[in-house]
Design a protein that fits this description.
heterodimer, A: 300 residues, alpha/beta, Glutaconate Coenzyme A-transferase, 2 domains, 11 helices, 12 strands, 21% strand, B: 264 residues, alpha+beta, six-stranded mixed sheet, 9 helices
């Protein structure tokens, strides 16, 4: 009998396949179920000049703060409960993102969907008449060949060199499961990516036969043909949501935003949380939480 | 006249003038009047309160969401978690629904012009903004696909501008230029602010003053609008909530979050 092939690797092994100037798609939405352990591993790497495609949250913020983003394809960047992402704002206001590509949220979905279907484009009305057309002069329209003759925006396919998504559960072969309220567009990020660097991090890696004890079959949106590497990443979406395993760490997110106010506090934050590997990060977060708890206790 | 209880203020009965937040809640709710069985989507506390208030009172067929991924039945309080789910509306279904036109969204806007071109993306030049905001988000798709209204908490000339810095939401002039389906279906309904209610019911779909909130003068609105408004000969006062509406507002916003958003 042939051996089942395990795709389980580490964050750093996944990131070792990434080269400068690649295009990376990052799943999740805003500050929700982001593959943060992979993003943190990417921060530790030397790669630069990246194109990042994301429904942006702190993933985009951190990569901007680290100066790794040359081109950014986005519809928004937000922390949800805190509307504006401080590092993304700073990068845009300083003009350090060389090539911002700002799309409507639906256009971004369409670009990824076209990419995953191997179509050159998909037509839509979203974007027409808006500033998106003004700031993306390479966008083209296409005329319906039918009686209506309507002119539509042809959203160009987005193809990715690498894709990172974070899921609640996965088996070792890459069948992956979301247990929260929204699949977001993670399947499209994986679909739009060339085979080879399609990475799924998961809260728990479980036996295949346990997948349906965790959730209904509806939760199995990602199958192993869409995945090249599986990373065991408990608390890997921190500080973003990973319902139902955990919610957003609002206090930590606030600390992240506060730390972005000036270079000194950002350096202190980076030194404390981002200077080591994922284990150091998780340990530093635990000790921060204990400190905050103590401080709160002391003040009351 | 029924006395009005202002929740979040210790249940004190006040029978004099209604709180601004309650007038604004009703003005927001009125945006969805007549919409029937569509997705009433509110981006923000006042917008969400408006949608749920409309559904709780005069527009019972509306669908409202929990702000996450579910349609909810009943009067779910804002921020409430004890929900009766009646449907699933993850982001991709939101996109499907809005593209199908079965949605009326009330958004915010950092800038808006005479024809309803709106901006939530950035202030200053897009290439290197003075202030980067959210990005265009779903504004472009919303405004060419489904009905769109706006809630603007501070009516001032820096928001009501002659030209927006980035068109994240398409106004009537741009929609007309596109023509065809978009020009025909383009539907910006109303703009609710801390001062007034406005709409686009003029021959050229430029902005018109509909009503001023109690205590606000037409001249206040004019002074705080950076372009010329159409002003009817008679400008009514925005209506106060009726008792049934105050009861619903109390159920939907028991913590009085609206008063923080819209202080009197």
């Amino acid at each position: 009998m042939s051996q089942m092939r395990s795709k389980v690797i580490t964050d750093d092994e996944a990131i070792a396949t990434i080269e400068s100037a690649m295009t990376i798609g990052i799943g999740g939405w805003g500050s929700r179920r982001k593959p943060m352990s992979l993003v943190r591993a990417l921060l530790r790497s030397k790669v630069t000049d990246l194109t990042i495609v994301s429904y942006g949250g702190p993933d985009v913020g951190l990569l901007c703060a680290a100066g790794k983003v040359r081109r950014l394809v986005y519809g928004f960047v937000s922390l949800d409960s805190i509307a504006l992402e401080p590092h993304f704002r700073a990068a845009r206001q300083a003009g350090t993102i060389a090539e911002p590509v700002e799309y409507d949220e639906g256009m971004l979905q369409w670009g990824l969907y076209a990419g995953s279907l191997r179509l050159p484009f998909l037509p839509t009305r979203a974007g027409l008449g808006s500033g998106v057309m003004d700031v993306n002069p390479s966008l083209r329209t296409v005329r319906s060949p039918y009686a209506d003759g309507e002119e539509l925006l042809a959203v160009p396919a987005i193809r990715l060199d690498a894709a990172f998504v974070h899921m609640n559960r996965a088996d070792a072969r890459g069948n992956a499961q979301y247990l929260g309220p929204d699949p977001y567009f993670d399947d499209l990020f994986l679909g739009a990516c060339e085979p080879g660097r399609r990475f799924v991090s998961a809260e728990k890696i479980i036996a295949t036969e346990d997948l349906l004890t965790e959730g209904t079959f509806h939760t199995l949106r990602i199958n192993r043909s869409m995945v090249d590497g599986v990373i065991h990443a408990p608390n890997g979406a921190h500080f973003t949501t990973c319902e139902p395993d955990y919610g957003r760490d609002e206090a930590f997110q606030k600390a992240y935003v506060d730390a972005a106010r000036d270079a000194d506090s950002w350096k202190a934050f980076s030194d404390r949380f981002l200077s080591g590997d994922e284990n150091s990060y998780q340990t530093a977060v635990s000790s921060w939480r204990a400190d905050v708890g103590t401080a709160k206790g002391a003040s009351t | 006249m029924a006395s009005r209880r202002r929740d979040g203020e210790g249940g004190v009965d006040v029978s004099e003038s209604p709180a601004l937040a309650d007038v604004v809640a009703v003005a927001c709710a009125e945006a969805w009047r007549g919409d029937g069985e569509i997705f009433a989507s509110g981006m923000g506390v006042m917008q969400m309160l408006g949608a749920r208030l409309a559904r709780a009172t005069f527009e019972p067929d509306l669908m409202v969401s929990d702000g996450e991924a579910f349609f909810v039945a009943g009067d779910l309080p804002i921020g409430g978690t004890n929900k009766t789910v009646e449907g699933w509306i993850p982001f991709r279904s939101v996109f499907d629904t809005l593209t199908g036109g079965r949605r009326h969204v009330m958004m915010g806007a950092s800038q808006i012009d005479k024809y309803g071109n709106s901006n939530i993306a950035n202030i200053g030049p897009w290439a290197k903004p003075k202030a980067q905001l959210l990005g265009v988000r779903g504004g472009p798709g919303n405004t060419v696909n489904n009905a769109t209204s706006f809630f603007i908490p501070k009516h001032q000339p820096s928001v009501f501008v002659p030209v927006v810095d980035m068109v994240s939401g398409v106004g009537y002039d741009r929609a007309r230029k596109i023509g065809g389906f978009i020009a025909k279906r383009h539907d910006l309904r109303r703009v609710v602010t801390n001062l007034a209610v406005l709409d686009f019911a003029t021959p050229d779909n430029s902005m018109r003053l509909v009503s001023v909130h109690p205590g606000v003068h037409v001249s206040d609105v004019v002074a705080n609008t950076g372009f010329e408004l159409t002003i009817p000969a008679e400008v009514p006062i925005s209506r106060a909530p009726v008792a049934e509406e105050m009861d619903a507002i109390g159920r939907i916003d028991p913590r009085g979050l609206r008063h923080r958003e819209m202080p009197s």
